[in-house]
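Usage example:
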Amino acid sequence: MKRDSRLSGVLHVLLHMAQQPGPFTSETLAKAMDTNPVVIRRIMAGLREIGYVRSEKGHGGGWTIACDLSKVTLRDVYAALGNPPLLAMGNRTEAPGCLVEQAVNAALDQAFDDAEALLLARLGEVTLAMLGEDLRKRLGSRKHQGMKAHRA
Amino acid sequence: MKRDSRLSGVLHVLLHMAQQPGPFTSETLAKAMDTNPVVIRRIMAGLREIGYVRSEKGHGGGWTIACDLSKVTLRDVYAALGNPPLLAMGNRTEAPGCLVEQAVNAALDQAFDDAEALLLARLGEVTLAMLGEDLRKRLGSRKHQGMKAHRA
DNA sequence: TTTCATGTAACTTTATATGTTACATGAAAA
DNA sequence: TTTTCATGTAACATATAAAGTTACATGAAA
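Running the assembly step on the lines above writes:
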């Protein structure tokens, strides 16, 4: 399976947008992310439906943040993407008649569920505002370590 | 990506083998698992190299368990598979120059690393012997709940 | 020497994320 | 009104990885 990077991607977009007033076109964002405008629209669609961002057509149109960044967590963003699978591994069969498989599933599910729960909890602890704050720190210390260009 | 079920599969095989003395041919095991003999050989290869199982060619050949089931954990089995990816999600770019992406990666990595560590820890708590014990309990209570056929 | 079983390479299939093209929709500007 | 710009979305293409399949070499027992 290819690794899912949509959460990573959409957070990148949001954080970029939070740095300056919008709106931003999908094309602008796509260039910054080195990808395709349609990919941007795709990962933003869920956030628009929930109301975290807004989009406008036509001249001067594009994407705008429409939420309180201190109220939205990474977990909320993940949910807006449609709760895609977190774990790369799973059971062979979900509701097996075979008792052997049931025993295996029970053991694995316990571990899997714990890990998923922890991951979601951790994501729920971080707001977009906190991410922005961390970024500001990084931007501040940048000039002290060689002014590496901001690629995007 | 397709969900990886090799750990689930190989545990199923081991638990089956633990129920009665071997050896078992790949074909027998494949039928029990409703899959292909080559798939069995493939997921068993790593375990053979580490010495958890043995394989013999020719008449009377097949697979045999060659380890102390109370000493091998699910984590050990996972490692024998070659430590395949645990998480379905990841960062867009691993070592980005973009500070925005660095900030995103830092936040996500913390959550990802914690979840992975917990998952591995949980797998490390369960031995194959414990799995077998759980299975024996399930086999015992089976007759009290309708004798559902053992599919495999 | 025949039969059986593993070992493995090569290929096919399937699932899923990502990338791309094409075009409809609607809004602002000319 | 017409043109331009931007999103919305379907359809198709590509990439990656697991799982399934075929074919054949290797080696052991009958």
